[in-house]
Amino acid sequence: MNTFLRYISIFYSRILELYPRNFRDEFAEEMKIVFRDSAHEAGDEGFLPLIILCLRELGGLSINILREFLHELERKETKMIANEKVEPKGGTSYWDALIGMLPFALFGIASMISKSRLPFHMAYPDLAFYAIILVGLLVGLAKGFPRWAYSYLGWSLVFAWWWSNMGTYGLKIFGFQINYWSWQIWLPLLAAFGIALLWTRSLHPFRQLIRGIWQNWTYLSLMIYAFVGFVLLIYDENHHPYLLVFMAASTLVICMTVWVFLQSASSWKRVIVLIAGFVVTLVLSNISYATWDSAAYYGLPPSPPQPWYTALNGVIGWTILYSGIMFWPLLIGLVRRVVNSRGKPGMA
Amino acid sequence: MLSMGRIVFSTGTLYGALRRLLEQGWIKRVNDPEPNPTDHERKAYTLTEKGRKIVNAEMERLKSLVATAQRQIPESSS
């Protein structure tokens, strides 16, 4: 009987590990003692009372573990909502702006490494970048989706979209050779969402993601700016002798743009900053392509000389196009304004 | 023990209830008045002032309920 009692006590201890950590830390030791005493008393009365006790405990524990998890969920929701109220209404802090800027800096660095002809597969810097971005996104979700997390979400979506049609011949990851990527690249992103859900046991970060865009549409523009950053930092098919200098300068401009964007309290200041950053980087990109003879590099017939205003037209045209892409979320802001004005009594 | 075996809680139900009562501030932990040298982890709980008021109010409500029931039942039926 003593051996049986010892085994069911061990089994009971294992079941207690299924409780939420807060509850376990507070009550598990007491519960073990109470169960041990009850089991000994029931055991003294006979085998049947002991079995009845065990069945009662099993039934009680399964219901109460579920109940405590629901309680923990409510407690976390309340705590996250309380923290959200503390967040300032204006721009983010210096450090938060730096954290939000980091993905743009890392993509610039990863692109420069990929162009540097180092003795490893050029996909590794990009995949390392993706891994870091996903960790950042996970932390952002765990922290209730602060403003800097939009930068990580934007980059993870852009990267997964980019790589969902990527050939990586000869690439080996943990012994597996992957020659072509499609839906597989989305799996780590889905896993990050899943882990965040398990970690927080709350939908609050996901609601905060949507609520943040509803309250300030420019955060969706920041996510789209990740796509703009991707286009401007990749310098595809460019073999300019000073390519790395252009890439470093573009990375610096884009990072400064995002840093100022995140620290700005006014929506219009953010819009102007994004446009200014885009124009400066586009000019840098144009200079790099204009001062490099691509036809000579690829052995093609020389291109006819272009009039001076062709490049200017290009900058204006691309700025209008990308501004339209970046700032369509303004519509969300307009809808919100209409909804809010209808909700206020006495307003048209 | 107090219910003479009529109410038997599982430990899960018991400690779930204790957690709620602690959070509501109706009970608090105290040193075990009869400490057992082998059970260092055993805790005792006592009513707080707020909890005592609620228990007293509940007792009054139950007394009133019983009194009403007694008034409704004729003496001859007992």
Structure report:
The complex is a heterodimer of chains A (348) and B (78). Chain A has a two-stranded antiparallel sheet with strand order 1-2. The mean pLDDT of chain A is 84. The N and C termini of chain A lie far apart (80 Å). Chain A has two domains: 2-77, no CATH class; 95-343, no CATH class. Chain A has 348 residues and is mainly alpha-helical. Chain A has helices at 2-16, 21-45, 47-86, 94-114, 123-142, 149-163, 187-200, 204-215, 218-233, 243-263, 267-290, 294-298, 309-327, 330-343, and strands spanning 167-173, 176-180. Chain B has one domain (11-77): Winged helix-like DNA-binding domain superfamily/Winged helix DNA-binding domain (Arc Repressor Mutant, subunit A, Orthogonal Bundle), CATH 1.10.10.10. Chain B has two helices and two strands, in the order αββα. The model of chain B has no long low-confidence stretch (mean pLDDT 81). At the A-B interface, α2 and α3 of A face α1 of B.
Kindly summarize this structure in a few lines:
Chain A has helices at 2-16, 21-45, 47-86, 94-114, 123-142, 149-163, 187-200, 204-215, 218-233, 243-263, 267-290, 294-298, 309-327, 330-343; strands at residues 167-173, 176-180.
Uncertain parts of chain A? none
The secondary-structure element order of chain B is: HEEH
Count of DSSP-assigned helices of chain B: 2
The best one-word shape of chain A is: elongated
Tell me the domain tally of chain B.
1
The CATH topology of chain B? Arc Repressor Mutant, subunit A
How widely separated are the two ends of chain A? Answer: 80 Å
Largest interface: A-B, 22 and 15 residues
Number of strands of chain B: 2
Q: Label the structural class of chain A.
A: mainly alpha
Helix content of chain A: over 70%
Low-confidence segments of chain B: none
SS-derived structural category of chain B: mainly alpha
Spatial gap, N to C terminus of chain B: 30 Å
Query: Per DSSP, what share of the residues of chain A sits in E-state strands of 2 or more residues?
Result: under 5%
Number of helices of chain A: 14
Element-level helix/strand string of chain A: HHHHHHEEHHHHHHHH
The top-level CATH class of chain B is Mainly Alpha
Principal-axes shape call of chain B: elongated
